[in-house]
Every structure is written in structure tokens, then in C-alpha cells.
What does this fold into?
Amino acid sequence: MKKGEKHTKKTRMKISLLQKGQHRSPRTEFKKGHISWCKGTKGLVKPNKGSFKKGHKPPEGKEHPNWKGGIWKKRRQWSKIILKRDNYECCGCLKKTKVTHHIITQKEDSNQKYDIRNGLTLCRSCHAYIHKVMEKNGY
Ligand SMILES: [Zn+2]
Ligand SMILES: [Zn+2]
It folds into this structure.
């Protein structure tokens, strides 16, 4: 059997997400409800704390090491705006936090990396939780 024939639907979706500019419109994604994850679940999402491992690093930590300082500065500024907007409160459980999350991942659309609408304030456990959900959905 040839290699590569085993691609599942999920894998294919992942690959298409990696190919810049070939995925579905991010604008519809916003409307369709990624952003409503925040509003719609305020106070409702309570991830199991026990399942959250200490020291788990979100994928954001894997950012390219060759990036220049200017990009980090931009990222910090973006985070600050998101945190202020959300009052330093986790969108899932309203805990005070300083973690920001990209709704549209950089893999999906790097143009929206610093779009304020593309940011969510999440505590570490909710952040881990949403990434688990995203993984399940093939992101
Ligand atoms: Zn939370
Ligand atoms: Zn994230």
C-alpha cells in the first residue's frame, strides 16, 4: 500500500488549513460563532481542574525562534489590548488572568494574528480546554 493514502478527512482538513489562503473565509468563521465561544459560555465552561496538568504550555509558546524582537513587541501590545478589553477576566470562568488566545490560529490566517477581534482572554485551564476542543475539531 502506498503511503499517503491513509489520509483521513481530518488530516486533509488540517493540511488545507496549513495552505495559506486556501481555507474558508475567516469572516464567516467569526460570525459562525468562534467569538461567541466567549460570550455564549460566560461562566458556564468549567473544565475539570484535575485533568489540567501543571506546566502545560499552550501552542503559542512554540512560536518561531527566528522571529525578530519587533514581532514580540507587537504580540505583547496585542495581548495588552485584549486583556484590557476583557478586564483581565477569563472569558470561560471569569477568573483573573493574563493569558490571551488566538481564535483564528496563525496556521489558519496569519493576517489576523494581531486583529483584536481575534483575541480572547482565558485562564490557563480554559485555554488548555479550548485547545483540546480545537484539536478535536481538527485545528
Ligand atoms: Zn477560565
Ligand atoms: Zn491559544
